[in-house]
Design goal:
With 197 residues, the chain is of the alpha+beta class. It has three helices and nine strands. The radius of gyration is 28 Å and the shape is elongated.
Length: 197
Amino acid sequence: MSNEGVDTSRRRFLTRATAAVGGAGVVAALYPFLASMAPSERAQAAGAPVEVDVSQLQPGERLTTEWRGRPVWVVRRSDDMLARLRTQEIRLRDPDSERDQQPEYARNEYRSIREEYLVLVGICTHLGCSPLFRPDAPAPEIHEQWTGGFFCPCHGSYFDLAGRVYAGVPAQLNMAVPPHRYASDTVLVIGEDGGEA
């Protein structure tokens, strides 16, 4: 059989065109599958860092924001609140924060980068209730030696003004400190590890 009169360039063109159309079809078929594996914009936003302006927060006040679908509290502790932290260490289950519930830069008696500001995930470590912020002292309805902190009304756990759990309550762990850093003197970024600021 002779190949005389056969246009091989046309055959190559048709072969290449068919391969290109087939490849485009494969890409078009795979795109929705691959796109479904990427996180949605909502999911990305839920895990994105959150900036908080702490310039208007007065000593003794708390503000609440949300990060990753959980409440995060920022408490500006007064000098009196900081002094009360040192009086309760003997009554705490984990006063030195030896368990990994905070970044390394918050492993101190204040559980914070700056002693004045406390950043906590506002969830009790017992069964996930949201504790009440009770900076007032005394409060004998909570405990006869209450010096202020966080009280969980669900099952009676209580935490000091650094989120450290007291011994003898249902919660076994200190409240969690999320990763955070300071972008400036007045802007706190929750969800990014910046180390010491």
